[in-house]
């Protein structure tokens, strides 16, 4: 499957309405989605991702129930977008081909299939389905810090051979330091760069999202993700409006209207933010300990429920090596920490 | 039968001598009621060699060979693939052999031993659902037998090394089948299933979490007691099946439709017969299949008459 032609030097993909769903606890309303899509579309964003934070089918006890059915949000986004393609996320093991068919029917033109960075071989089923449905494709190799650049490139190869047009270095934990990121970008570009575009999805937990995006562009990465106001899991994603401004200053053509995006962030997204993702203790611990960013709100909730510190929960998640999707283990850890605390209190008496 | 007379063992066969078939053989070797007399594959393999070492007649000539044996097995355990079982199942049925299907073919009723085995003990073909189903459906049932469950959701986390190529090529099959079984067998009105593969080293032991939506006024003491009782029932055939903590009850929430929630945190450690202990997901399949086979054998011996 050939990759699409690029219309600009890099293709900025906005995930405010997907990764941002985590920060919004999956409570997006249809009018918020319509307003955001309209603003992004006008500012020249070519691809706008709209899905539950954990992808199609993510509405659940484990990840949080959506306030509005994601198919309704996808259809609304499709109606508002004059130019942009609507993308959806699909995490095999959570979402299915059936969900993808429904999303396509609702108006999605692109799917990003996401697996843990060593498990790409669960994705060919979904890439094959996407091809049959005539959808554009990209592939997320999540928690990319958890494997070597060489192995990550091999996993990207599996995805590309299955029909992925753009495998991503997906830094789900915001854990990649600049050299780590560069090595992974270069490895993927070397492995699949002749057939596919390489992508980068960053998180700001250690504030490297934009810096790594600049490196990415320099070494040949062509799909770069952002979110308005950084709205995303953990301390959020590389802010789309900052990416637009930085690439403009670098003379890299993104096709984006910087002032339009600044307005979208300031006037459309900021008013509905229930929390503005920031680098607080819990989020920094996620980058530092290599923890999947969307665990943040779940850890905070478990902290309140069980009376144990969220950053201790998150540190433990890092030690135990849990991966994206294992939000249930946060409850397990919190219960365990609470038991330890109670035992210690008994012992002290 | 007279009390002093030990009934003859029921002859069984394992079709598919891979990791699952070999582990199943190790478990059934301990059985007092099932005698695995035959193991078959379609090519010479380590699995067939292991079966011969264990003193079992083994052949690479597949089901053709098996159906020429005298005596024929009365129970066959299918540990091949869905496609192979689709081809083989009618032949077992024609020969009057009961089939315990560990593949994703799902031709017969879905069976979870402590939940609904008795109802299907004479079924010509039963499906062992999925690993996540075997681990979690007992707990959905433990709740639903005490109080209505409008929705149940399960999350199965398994070590990457324990997820084979078949599972990986069709992970949607796990999601669909398990979701359906959580409702149909577990007794929830609606079911949802999620599976996560984790590559951490050393490999993680299988973990499962069961979330059940329950009424705000549901009897929590009765639910917890039922969950503990069910854990003991599963431990009879999966000794490493444990509750990691007491059932966790969460108060009703608006976005749960005003329902409360009970969460069951499980660990499934394998018996380490042939498969490594972390692969609880595979162990619970073979252990449940062995349990089904033994109960079927007891029924054939007239134990439940």
Task: Describe this structure as you would to a colleague.
The complex is a heterodimer of chains A (349) and B (305). Chain A has helices at 20-23, 30-42, 70-80, 97-106, 124-132, 149-161, 178-192, 209-218, 240-250, 258-269, 281-289, 295-306, 310-320, 328-348; strands spanning 11-17, 47-50, 85-90, 110-116, 136-142, 167-170, 199-201, 223-226. By secondary structure, chain A is an alpha/beta fold. The mean pLDDT of chain A is 97. Chain B is 36% helix and 23% strand. In chain B, helix 6 (131-144) packs parallel to helix 8 (171-184) and helix 6 crosses helix 10 (280-300). The mean pLDDT of chain B is 96. Chains A and B meet through helix 14 of A and strand 7, helix 7, helix 8, strand 8 and strand 9 of B.
Largest sheet of chain A, in brief, is: 8 strands, parallel, barrel
Q: Over all CA atoms, what is the radius of gyration of chain A?
A: 19 Å
How would you state the average pLDDT of chain B, rounded?
Answer: 96
Query: Major β-sheet of chain B, in short?
Result: 6 strands, parallel
Order of strands across the main sheet of chain B: 3-2-1-4-5-6
Strand content of chain A: 5-15%
**Nearest-integer average pLDDT of chain A:** 97
Element order of chain B: H for helix, E for strand = EHEHEHEHEHEHEHHEEHEEEH
| H/E element order of chain A | EHHEHEHEHEHEHEHEHHHHHH
Percent helix among the residues of chain A? 40-55%
Tell me the strand order in the biggest sheet of chain A.
1-2-3-4-5-6-7-8
Strand elements of chain B, count: 12
Number of distinct beta strands of chain A: 8
Q: Quick one: overall form of chain B?
A: globular
């Amino acid at each position: 499957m050939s990759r699409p032609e690029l219309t600009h030097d890099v293709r900025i993909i906005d995930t405010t309405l997907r990764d941002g769903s985590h920060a919004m606890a999956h409570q997006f309303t249809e009018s918020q989605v319509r307003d955001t899509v309209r603003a992004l579309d006008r500012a020249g964003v070519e691809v706008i991702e709209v899905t539950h934070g954990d992808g199609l089918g993510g509405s659940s006890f484990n990840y949080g129930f959506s306030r509005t059915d994601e198919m309704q949000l996808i259809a609304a986004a499709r109606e508002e977008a004059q130019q942009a393609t609507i993308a959806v996320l699909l995490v095999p093991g959570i979402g299915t081909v059936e969900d993808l068919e429904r999303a396509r029917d609702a108006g999605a033109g692109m799917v990003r299939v996401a697996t843990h960075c060593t498990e790409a071989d669960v994705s060919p089923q979904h890439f094959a389905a996407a091809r049959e449905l005539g959808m554009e494709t990209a592939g997320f190799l999540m928690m990319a810090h958890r494997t070597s650049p060489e192995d990550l490139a091999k996993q990207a190869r599996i995805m590309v051979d299955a029909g992925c047009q753009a495998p991503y270095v997906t830094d789900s934990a915001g854990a990649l330091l600049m050299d780590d990121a560069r090595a992974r970008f270069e490895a993927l570009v070397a492995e699949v760069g002749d057939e596919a575009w390489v992508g980068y999805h960053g998180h700001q937990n250690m504030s490297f999202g934009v810096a790594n995006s600049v490196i990415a562009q320099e070494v040949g990465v062509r799909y770069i993700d952002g979110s308005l106001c950084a709205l995303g899991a953990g301390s959020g994603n590389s802010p789309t409006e900052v990416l637009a401004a930085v690439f403009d200053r670098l003379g890299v053509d993104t096709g984006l209207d910087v002032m339009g995006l600044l307005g979208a962030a300031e006037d459309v997204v900021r008013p509905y933010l229930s929390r503005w993702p920031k680098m607080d203790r819990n989020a920094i611990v996620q980058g530092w300990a290599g923890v999947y960013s969307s665990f943040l709100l779940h850890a905070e909730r478990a902290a309140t429920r069980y009376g144990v510190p969220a950053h201790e929960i998150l540190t433990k998640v890092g030690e135990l090596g849990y991966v994206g999707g294992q939000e249930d283990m946060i409850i397990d850890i919190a219960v365990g920490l609470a038991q330890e605390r109670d035992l210690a209190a008994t012992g002290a008496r | 039968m007279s009390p002093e007379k030990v009934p003859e063992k029921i002859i069984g066969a394992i079709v598919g001598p891979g990791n699952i078939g070999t582990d199943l053989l190790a478990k059934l070797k301990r059985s007092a009621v099932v005698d695995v007399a035959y193991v078959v594959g379609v090519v010479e393999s380590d699995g067939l060699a292991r079966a011969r070492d264990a003193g079992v007649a083994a052949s690479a000539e597949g089901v053709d060979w098996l159906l020429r044996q005298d005596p024929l097995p009365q129970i066959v355990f299918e540990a091949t693939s869905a496609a192979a079982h689709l081809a083989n199942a009618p032949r077992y049925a024609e020969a009057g052999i009961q089939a315990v299907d560990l593949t994703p073919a799902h031709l017969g009723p879905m069976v979870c031993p402590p939940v609904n085995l008795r109802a299907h003990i004479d079924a010509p073909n039963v499906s062992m659902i999925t690993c996540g189903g075997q681990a979690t459906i007992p707990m959905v049932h433990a709740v639903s037998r005490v109080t209505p469950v409008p929705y149940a959701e399960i999350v199965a986390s398994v070590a990457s090394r324990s997820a084979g190529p078949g599972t990986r090529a069709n992970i949607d099959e796990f999601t669909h089948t398990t979701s359906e079984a959580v409702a149909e067998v577990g007794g929830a009105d609606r079911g949802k299933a999620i599976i996560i593969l984790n590559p951490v080293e050393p490999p993680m032991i299988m973990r499962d979490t069961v979330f059940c939506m329950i009424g705000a006024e549901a009897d929590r003491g009765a639910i917890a007691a039922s969950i503990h009782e069910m854990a003991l029932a599963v431990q009879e055939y999966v000794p490493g099946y444990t509750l990691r903590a007491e059932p966790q009850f969460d108060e009703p929430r608006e976005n749960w439709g005003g329902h409360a929630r009970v969460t069951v945190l499980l660990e499934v450690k394998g018996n380490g017969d042939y498969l490594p202990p972390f692969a609880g997901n595979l162990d619970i399949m073979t252990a449940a299949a062995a349990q089904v086979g033994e109960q079927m054998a007891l029924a054939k011996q007239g134990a439940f008459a």
